[in-house]
Hints:
- This protein is an alpha/beta fold and about 625 residues long.
- The chain has 3 domains: about 5-245, Rhopdopsin 7-helix transmembrane proteins, CATH 1.20.1070; about 270-435, Rossmann fold; about 440-615, P-loop containing nucleotide triphosphate hydrolases (Rossmann fold), CATH 3.40.50.
- It is about 55% helix and about 15% strand.
- It has 22 helices and 18 strands.
- The chain has helices at about 5-30, 40-60, 65-95, 105-115, 120-140, 160-185, 195-220, 230-245, 255, 280-295, 310-315, 320-330, 345-355, 370-375, 380-395, 410-420, 445-450, 465-475, 525-540, 550-555, 560-575, 590-600; strands at about 140-145, 155-160, 270-275, 300-305, 330-335, 365-370, 400-405, 425-430, 430-435, 455-460, 485-490, 500-505, 510-515, 520, 545, 580-585, 605-610, 610-615.
- Strands 13-14-12-11-15-16-10-17-18 form a 9-stranded mixed beta sheet. A 7-stranded mixed beta sheet has the order 5-4-6-7-3-8-9, sandwiched between helices. Strands 1-2 form a two-stranded antiparallel ribbon.
- The longest helix is centred in the N-terminal third of the chain and has 31 residues, at about 65-95.
Amino acid sequence: MVLQLPLSLLVFNLTQLSFMVAVIFLVSQQKMSYFNTVKKHFIIAYSAFAFGFLCEEITKLLLPTRIVTYFSTKVSLSSILLCIYMIGLAASVLYKKPLSSSVTTKNVYVEFFLKKPFLPFIAYNGLIFTVLGLIWFLTPFKIELAINSLSGEKIYIPKYELWITMCWLLVLVVFIVYPNYLLLASTRRIKSKETSRRLKQLSACLMGVGISFFVFYILLRTFAIETVQLGNFINTVLFAFMVHIFRKSTVLENFFEVEHLPVLVNEGKPTILLYSSTTDKMKILSSYIQDCILNKYCVAYFFPAMEKETVIEGLKKNGVNVEKTLKKGMLILFPVLKSNENFKESFSSFLGNIKGLGKDKKVCILVDYGNIHKTSKEATQFFSMLESLKKEILQRKLAVLITFNMDTLSIEEVQKLRCFQFRTAFMVEDLFPVHLNEFSGKVGLSHSQVVGKKILMEFNPALHYEDYVHDFLLEGITNANLSITFLRKGSKLQTLPNMKKVMLSVDTKTPIEVKGKTLIVSMTDASIILEAFRRILDEYPNSWIVVDNLSDITLTIGFEKTYSLLRHVSELLADREATVMFLFNPGAHDKKVREAFRAMTDIIITLKSSGPKLIKA
C-alpha cells in the first residue's frame, strides 16, 4: 500500500534538515577552544543525527511504503546509536585531556581498554554494539499504519516490542550516567570557571537529547503514537544550543588554555627531579622534551641501556615523534648508563658525549638514572661521579634535568643530592612537579606566607632580577596555578619560558587582542589594564602575576593614574587568593612615589647585589 505524500510534514522536515546542515557547518568552522580536541566527534554525532533524520522522515515521506519504512527505521536507529556512541567517546576524551597534553581517540582506547581497563567505558561500548546487533539481526519491531498526532495524516511507523523498549531504556540510563559523569568530573579539574560552566551546560543538553530520543523515537511508538517530528525539533534546538556553547567565547579563551604544567629548567641551573615507582615518568619527561624542541633546543636524553625499548615506546605514546626528531637531530638518545661493574666506564663515556654537544646548537640534557643502586655498584661511587657531572654542568652553563626514582633512595642519599645545590623537585599529583619554596624560601618566607599577597620587588636594572621573577613564576605554576606576566616589549622577562604574557603596548590599535598565546593590552589607558586584570582574575582567581613594571607604567600614564590602578587592582584581589608581584625601580622616582607604592603592598623586597632583602612581610 502506497500512501499519499503528506506535503505539510515534508516541508516542515526539509526546513528542519536545512537547519541541521547549517548547524553542522557552523561547528566545523569553529575553533571551539578547550573543546577543539573533540570537535570531530561532535561533527560525526551531529551528522549521524541529521542522517538518521533524513532516513527516518524524509525518505519515508517521499516513498511512503512498508519496505522503505522497514529499512529506514533500521538505518535511523543505527544513526542514533552512532550519535550516542560518539558523544560518549567525546566525553571520554575530554575527561582524559587534563591528564595528558596529547590526547587522541587511540589514547583513550589504549588507556581504558588495555592499560587501565575502565569498566564503565567497556560496558558503554558493549551495550551500544549489542543493541545495534539486536536491531539488525532480530528486527524487534513491526511496521504499522498510524495517524500522525501533529498533522493528522496517515503514515507508516515502527511499533517496537516491549523487550527492545526496555533495552533502549537501559541505553538511555547509561547515556545519561556515563558521558555526564565524565563531563561533570572534568569540571572539577578545570580552573577556568567559564569552561567549567560550559561543560555543565553541555551535560544538561545531553540529558535532554537522550530523553527526547527515547520518548519520541521509542516509547511513544511502542504504543503506536507518532510525534517524532516534535522530538526531532527538540533535539535540533538542543544541538544548536551546544554549538552556541562552543561558539560563545571571550577574547581571552586562547590565552587561558593550558595544556600541561611543564618542568622549568634554565641554562646553568640544573634540576634534580625525584619520582616514585608508581609514577608514569614518561608523561612529564615527554612534555619536557617537547617544550625544549619547541624552543629550538636539541635534547640529549641519557638513560639506562636496559630501558631503551620502554623509553622509545613511552615517548611515542605521549606525543613525541621519535623518528622525525631523531632524523632532524632535535633528539639524541644515549642508552649509555649500564649496570654495576660498567657504571664507571659508561659514566666516563657519558661525560665525553656531553663535551661533544652544544658546539653548533643549543642543548638541553635529560639524564634519567632511575634506580642508582642498579646503575652504580656502590652509592658512594655514584655520588663521586655526580660531583664530576656537576662541575661540567656549571662550567658550561648547560640546561640539565636529572631524574631519580626516589623509592630507591634512602633519606641520607636524598640529603646528599640536596647538598649538590641543584634545584630539587618532586613528581606528585598527576605528574605535576612541585618545587619547594622556589621563590619564597630565598626571601626567608614560607609558601603559605606569600600566597594571596601583593609583593613589591624593588630592583636595580643592572642586576639579574629576572632570576628571582623566574623563581616566583616557577613556584606558582608548579603549584598548579596559572603564571602570568604583564610586560613591555624588550623586557628582560620576555625570554622566560612557560608563562602567559600580557604585552603592554603603547601603539596597539585595539584595546585588547590575542595573538597566539600573548595578550596585547593598551598601556596608555589604565582602565584597559584594569579590565585585563579583572578578566584574568575572574577566570583564574588563584593566579600568580608579575607586573613589569610600575616604573614604566608611571612614566607612561602618570603617577596618579598608576596609583589609582594599583588601588583598584587591590580591590579586585581582596576576595581572591591571587599572588601579585609588582616590579619597581626606585631609582627612577622620588621618595614620595616609592613610599606610596610601598604602602599599597603586603610584602616589600629590595634586590641588592648580595641578594634579596626582606623589608616588610
